[in-house]
Amino acid sequence: MRTIEPEIVEPTANLPQIHARRLDPIAEIPLYVARPGLRAMPSGSLIMAGCAGLQFWTLSFLLWAMWWPTPQTPRLLAFAIGGTATLLFLVVLVIVLLLRRYPGFLLGVARAPFIRLTVTDRRVVWSLPWQRYPLMEIDRARILGGILGTVDARGYGNAAMVMVHGDPAADIDGNIHFDRLPDVEKFVAALARQGW
């Protein structure tokens, strides 16, 4: 009769490895922090503000024409009140139509001066001071580096963050572009730091 010998497992066999998990997480190291302010407004914002200002100047002229001199008769008073109500209704209608048609664009323009851009050793974060969670964050594994554009005498300039091929946050060239960043050379250096 044949006996079956038990299999001996060598100590060097591939057994589950015992590992410890850190209870105190390692803090991120901020490499670059920017609050561009009004310089973060998209290109052409000043022209748009000028056009809107001209429209409001025209509205104020129309209101002045309706209310000066003060309407003396009930008919003139009714015309002034009706004209003012019509103008206000048209202004509100235009604002509502713009908000319904381009909500993301107008919201982005409104909060652009308040966005803080932070580059750490682990990620790039866009955040607002009144929100607990960031608007967007990109892990360092998705970033290949940075490209420096034109820089003025005060250190403001343009840059591009080069993303991995096919990243959904990138444009058609595979980049995310930044305009008028303060200390833009430090931004590109933070993206090019070892470990990215």
Short description:
It is built from 4 helices and 7 strands. With 196 residues, it is of the alpha+beta class.
Structural write-up:
The protein has 196 residues and is of the alpha+beta class. The chain folds into two domains: 30-37 and 114-191, Roll (PH-domain like), CATH 2.30.29; 45-109. 35% of the residues lie in helices and 21% in strands. It contains four helices and seven strands, in the order E-H-H-H-E-E-E-E-E-E-H. It has helices at residues 45-67, 74-101, 103-111, 184-191; strands at 30-34, 116-120, 123-127, 136-139, 143-151, 157-163, 175-181. The strands form two sheets. Strands 1-2-3-4 form a four-stranded antiparallel sheet, covered by helices on one side. Strands 5-6-7 form a three-stranded antiparallel sheet, covered by helices on one side. A hairpin with a 5-residue loop joins strand 5 and strand 6 (157-163). Helix 1 packs antiparallel against helix 2. The longest helix is centred in the middle third of the chain and has 28 residues, at 74-101. The radius of gyration is 30 Å and the shape is elongated. The N and C termini lie far apart (65 Å). The mean pLDDT is 83.
Structural class by secondary-structure content: alpha+beta
Whole-number mean pLDDT? 83
Q: Helicity, in percent?
A: 25-40%
Number of strands: 7
The name of the CATH superfamily of the largest domain reads: Pleckstrin-homology domain (PH domain)/Phosphotyrosine-binding domain (PTB)
Strands ordered across the widest β-sheet: 1-2-3-4
Output the radius of gyration.
Answer: 30 Å
